[in-house]
Amino acid sequence: MKKKLLALTLAFVSVFACLALTACGNEPLIKVVSDGECVAFTAKSSVITFTDTTSVKDYMDALVEKGELQYEGYNGDWGYYITSVEGKKEETGYFWSLYTDLVTIEGDSAVYSSAELGTYDLDGKTLNTASYGVSNLPCVEGYTYALVYSSYSY
Question: pTM (2 decimals)?
Answer without folding.
Answer: 0.81
